[in-house]
Structure formats: C-alpha cells, structure tokens
Design brief:
Aminopeptidase; Acyl_CoA_acyltransferase; transferase; 134 residues; alpha+beta
C-alpha cells in the first residue's frame, strides 16, 4: 500500500463520510489541522483511508483514522498506524496516544496501545484515551 502525505483538507471528505456523516462537515475539521501531518492511502486516485498526526514535544496524538467501508478489514488502518509509529520513531517521540471509540479499543491494543482510565463522551459516543510508549 502506498501512503502519501496530504493536506488536511484532503482528509475532510473521508473523515466526514466515515466518522460523522450525520453532522456538518465542519464537525470533522480540527482547530489545529494546519499543524498536523496528514497521511492517506489511495486506490485509483481516490482516498480510501486517512490519519492525522499531531506532535507536541516528545508526545504525539493520532486522530481521525478513517477508512471507507469497502476498504475496511484490508489492512489500510493498520498500515497507517504503523506509518505514524515509524514517523514517531524517526522524530524520537516517546509517547503515542489517541482518543479511541470504546468499541474499537481492542483494535488499538494490537499496536501496543493500552487503555487509560480516562473516558469521555462526544456526540453520544463513548471514548477512551489510549497510549503507547515508544
């Protein structure tokens, strides 16, 4: 799979389609999108999966991991997580974390991430903060 660096704006349509289709497009735009690194996988010039990485000091958060339904369970999300982990290793990042939907937490555990005791609700969905030490 070929992973490309993209602009934040490139990720907005897939974020919206996959994560929050019932809400306005602005809901998937992040205040600090311009400060992030954004990556995507394309099939036939169409974006099928994306992730955004935000680095602060020796800690990084990945956000907005989204894969179109027809490309789920084909390794796209795994490839993107492994890619951001590699970026973090190269940048000497010590901690990688994310806000995981509780029903998806097991997926992130496959990448060495562990649930913290921090939970929150957003737009009616329950999230847990997960982290991994690199």
């Amino acid at each position: 799979m070929l992973i490309k660096s993209v602009s934040a704006e490139t990720t907005w349509p897939i974020r919206h389609e996959v994560m929050w289709p019932e809400l306005p497009m602005d809901f998937v735009k992040l205040e600090n999108d311009s400060k992030g690194k954004h990556y995507a996988i394309f099939v036939n010039d169409n974006i099928v999966s994306c992730i955004s990485l935000f680095i602060e000091g020796d800690s990084a958060q990945f956000r907005k991991l989204a894969t179109t339904p027809q490309h789920q369970r084909k390794g796209c999300a795994s490839a993107l997580i492994n890619h951001v982990k590699m970026v973090c290793y190269q940048d000497n990042i010590k901690r990688l974390w994310c806000n995981a939907r509780v029903d998806k937490a097991n997926f992130y555990e496959n990448f060495g991430m562990a649930k913290t005791n921090k939970f929150f609700t957003k737009a009616g969905l329950e999230f847990v903060i997960m982290e991994g030490i690199l």
